[in-house]
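To assess whether ligand presence alters the predicted conformation, the chain was also submitted together with 6-hydroxymethylpterin-diphosphate. Input:
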Amino acid sequence: MGVVNVTPDSFSDGGVHLDPDAAAGAARRMVEEGAAIVDVGGESTRPGSDGVSAEEELRRVVPVLDRLGREVPLSIDTSKAAVARAALERGAVLVNDVTALQGDPELAEVVGSNAYLCLMHMQGAPRTMQAEPRYDDVAAEVASFLEARLAFAVAQGIPEERICLDPGIGFGKTVAHNLELVRRLDVLLALGRPVVVGFSRKSSLRKLTGSDDLLGASVAAAVAAFERGATILRVHDVKPHVDALTVAGAIA
Ligand code: HH2
């Protein structure tokens, strides 16, 4: 899953894809490089960020979606029903909701029975989530949250076979929590749904390596997640990840 953030402030690619032509071009390039899906987002969820209005999010993402139509398999990274609706109308196939259907009571109905849905774990909210993340058993607590959100989504009429789960690397977690979640990914896989991992360019990698160039670190994290059973890797640098995962897959 390639990432195109149409935002001025995303921690990894903020401002790069604000121009709709540049964003659409980046999405097409990611597919050429081997991405199966491109996740377009108009709101940064980096630690400390405030949300944006639905109007602003629509203003950012709709021109990009309009340029791509149905030519690129698209995911919309949003927790707002209005933004998801606009994206699905324009051919998006997956709604990636970092609030796991806790942000907008109307989102479940918009996803309905035709779109795919990603449910992600977050402790707290972006503004404060990195202040003091705490767990007794991070893998068990994330799994139990995702199990409950999966049951909620299914009760809302979203078919279980259309739902994937994501531990939410960096969303209210320390470096140790993030590493443990990947190490113990089997606890999430036991829920029986495909697992998404997004470690790409996250600050834990900088803390571990002391480097600002996070490409090698991102690829290593993706391969480690893949080897523990993740089947969707959310990444910014598609080509190196596709190459690494192709080799890791061939060896496996
Ligand atoms: N991470 C980010 C945003 N959306 N969605 C899922 N499912 N999983 C993730 O790990 C995830 C996500 C944050 O990364 P990024 O999009 O690079 O930055 P920002 O939120 O600042 O736009």
